[in-house]
Amino acid sequence: QAGKFIGTIAKICGGGGGGRPNLAQAGGRDASKLPEALETAIADLKSSLG
């Protein structure tokens, strides 16, 4: 569920996102939080993939 995944990550940067199960996009207002968002995304993906 790409839309659900990206939405939670985008909130870290003060934004939002969404999309279809296989494609999503997001945006945010606080670019200084991007490293934290990327680390969270990597951790979430690793957890999802096992």
Name a few traits of the molecule:
Diaminopimelate Epimerase, Chain A, domain 1, 54% helix, single chain, 2 strands, 2 helices, two-stranded antiparallel sheet, 50 residues, alpha+beta
Q: Any overview of this molecule?
A:
By secondary structure, the chain is α+β, with helices and mostly antiparallel strands. It has a single domain (2-49), classed as Diaminopimelate Epimerase, Chain A, domain 1. It has 2 helices and 2 strands. The protein has helices at 2-12, 34-49; strands at 16-20, 23-27. A two-stranded antiparallel ribbon has the order 1-2. The protein starts with a helix and ends with a helix. The mean pLDDT is 94.
Kindly summarize this structure in a few lines.
With 50 residues, this protein is α+β, with helices and mostly antiparallel strands. It is built from two helices and two strands, in the order αββα.
Which helices and strands, and how do they pair?
Layout: H1 2-12, E1 16-20, E2 23-27, H2 34-49
Antiparallel strand pairs: 1-2
Helix pairs in contact: 1-2
Distance between the termini: 16 Å
- Cα-based radius of gyration, to the nearest Å: 10 Å
Number of helices: 2
Total domain units: 1
How many DSSP E strands?
2
Strand order of the largest sheet: 1-2
